[in-house]
DNA sequence: GAATTTATGCATTTAAGATGCATCTTTCAT
DNA sequence: ATGAAAGATGCATCTTAAATGCATAAATTC
């Protein structure tokens, strides 16, 4: 059971953004997190569509949090970014199971993944930030070397 | 976020076994569940090693539950069968993250997957069985045709 | 000892995700 | 206007874990 890297990286990107006031370029974010640039780009684009980050093109552009860190719940991020939250076959599109339609496993699994997300939702991004190491912002002047 | 088919199928196999007193062959179980025989074979072998099913070779052999259905907790089955329960990179062997060692995401994720398993552990196999359709046992006489 | 049934290892296939690359669009500074 | 900076998007390829199939071994019973 693992989340896609998209969900995982999303949270790290949000953490990084939450550590600085100014807009960051995707280039700088991916370099600082040590992640593939194009991968981060796609994740950020989606985060942008979801309103979780605010993106701006062109010179002086970049990305920043789309809303205050204390209004971003971790479980909600995962719920929106994770492409497939159907933990078992029968919860997915086209999935089948010999026991259906009367299988008690299905609601049990649905409930368990809700429990997972609810547990994550006990934390806001702000709460995580207060307990997480600051990566340090690279000043704009030397950022572009 | 999805479980491996190994975990998923394990539970279905256990459900099926819980519906009959007599031992079932892997052949019959896989046919009735509509799953690949060799895949079920490997799953059963592991379930056997874990003591969740009792296996017997040779004529008249087969598999049956290793202990009473009310002593099999769903979350425990998943915990034992799932090859990789590290939902994010930093929870896995060799995983890394720029925020480590001081990253609050890690304990939050660990806690969330515990919540997932605990939710499943509210159900025993017996509880599921009482709410699940009986697939119907193929009588031993015609089983071998 | 032959038939039945589980056990195991290896090799192949599959599918989802990740990655890289090329190109487009928007925005700003000069 | 023009060019550079930055995000957006589509496509094609690579990677990897999981699934599958096949062959063979081991155990058990009759």
From TrEMBL, chains A, B:
Keywords: DNA-binding. Pfam families: Rrf2. One of its GO terms (molecular function) is DNA binding. One of its GO terms (cellular component) is cytosol. Signal peptide: none annotated. It comes from the Bacteria. InterPro entries: TR_Rrf2-type_CS, Tscrpt_reg_Rrf2, WH-like_DNA-bd_sf, WH_DNA-bd_sf. NCBIfam families: rrf2_super (TIGR00738). This is Rrf2 family transcriptional regulator. The lineage of its organism: Bacteria, Pseudomonadati, Pseudomonadota, Alphaproteobacteria, Hyphomicrobiales.
């Amino acid at each position: 059971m693992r989340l896609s890297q998209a969900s995982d990286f999303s949270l790290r990107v949000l953490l990084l953004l939450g550590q600085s006031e100014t807009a960051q370029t995707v280039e700088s974010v991916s370099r600082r997190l040590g992640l593939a640039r194009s991968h981060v780009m796609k994740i950020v684009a989606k985060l942008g569509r979801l309103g979780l980050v605010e993106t701006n093109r062109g010179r002086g552009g970049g990305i920043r949090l789309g809303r205050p860190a204390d209004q971003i719940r971790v479980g909600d991020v995962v719920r929106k970014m994770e492409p497939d939250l159907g933990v078992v076959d029968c919860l997915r599109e086209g999935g089948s199971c010999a026991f259906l339609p009367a299988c008690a496993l299905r609601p049990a699994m649905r409930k368990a993944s809700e429990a997972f997300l609810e547990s994550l939702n006990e934390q806001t991004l702000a709460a995580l930030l207060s307990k997480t190491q600051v990566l340090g912002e690279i000043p704009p002047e030397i950022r572009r070397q």
